[in-house]
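Input.
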Amino acid sequence: MTLEKPGEFPYTRGLYKNMYKDKLWTMRQYAGYTTAEESNNRFKFLLENGVNGLSVAFDLPTQIGFDSDHFMAQGEVGKVGVPISYLKNMEDLFRDIPLDKVSTSMTINATAPVLLGFYVSLAMKKNINIKKLHGTLQNDILKEYIARGTYIYPPRPSLKLVTDIFEYCSISLPNWNTISISGYHIREAGSTAVQELGFTFSNAIAYVQSAIDKGLDPNIFGQRISFFLNAHNGFLEEISKFRAARKIWAKIMSERFGVTSEKALMFRFHTQTGGSTLTASDIENNTVRTTMQALSAVLGGTQSLHTNSKDEALSLPSTETARLALRTQQIIAYESGVTKYADPFGGSYLVEDMTEKYIEKTFEIIENIDDLGGAVSAIENNYMEDEISSSAYEYQKQVENCKKIIIGVNKYEDKNKKDPDLQEIDPKKVKDQIEALKRFKDNRNSIQVIQELKKLEESAKNNMNVMPNIISCINKDCTLGEISDSLRKIFGEY
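Output.
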């Protein structure tokens, strides 16, 4: 049993001595709608209702580097998030929101350099000192190859873009979290809890090593590394998982990379409740699931939290369900009493035992991946993808055989259920987005655009940091799709 105290290395019991008694976690609700204007309204609504951090959901074309008017974007514009094709979209998204006072998280990976570029360009346009910007870029491309599939370029040039962001932010955006390494999507794809940890940390090792190979100091860039984990249904298991993650990361950074900076040793993480646990039937039950999952994240010591809305298995959340999801966090924070205690489960024989088992099994997975040549080689050989598929298959068999009970699905199904009211996408707004983008392209200086894109291609070809050129492209009216296409020419597609 651990004799550690909260706030002490290796931080199993929490990063800070008093945890939430001194500062609550950031309540960071995820949102993105068909237009930047709609998304802006939702952000303002959330801020008015107590959210203290924004989290942007982007639509699929934006995630994979296509403008809204591209033929590959047809039918997908604005469906799962907000479309961002040019700087005006970003302006509309953050209209009347003080970028230097609000922390912004962006769930974006393959096009992370471009979206960060838009955010920086917007701040410059507003005469905001970019060194004052606070936020997080997901920027975890490796998990895209094993869990989500929204990649553009092959793994190795994609990794180069990640380290370009590390380098750029270490100088220009010192308060920006350069990556949020995501176990969340690995778990959503069907992994077990220990695979979520093992694959996430193997990816993290690849990012750290890549940055070191570029000459960066892990004691410095390690301070801006954050993580993103899933809160699933196993209440005590999830608490143990979160506790284990802190110790694992502290050991990796200190023993493997020789890190001595206290802040760089800390495993700081955002949590989202389990999207894959939400059911399309009996959606009221999802509120109970989300509450239980959110509580496990808080008891596990998360720094930031998103609670899913009950209707997210069917649509983008309505205003009412988004409010309820936020209120769930607020009730835990202000009414439950759990925030009075740092690591309330510290000393529990069961939780301490599960914590140590997670640590042991996670390092076994990391060792297996090391033997394969590391995360990139394992991805290229489909190792992690195959392992996740196998776990997902086993889980589904258990559900179908009723060995895993899902209330309202395979037990106690409501035969008289009513269809819920859902948020719907307005096709006219999609059309307006596309037509406005076309007008923008028709009225800009096309020669200037071509020149800037050629400069970007040269910087990529010569293995230079592409961030300054991307920002220059944006300032000269280049679009997300055009910038992505220029990099496609140099790096290829995967």
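The two ends are 47 Å apart (CA to CA).
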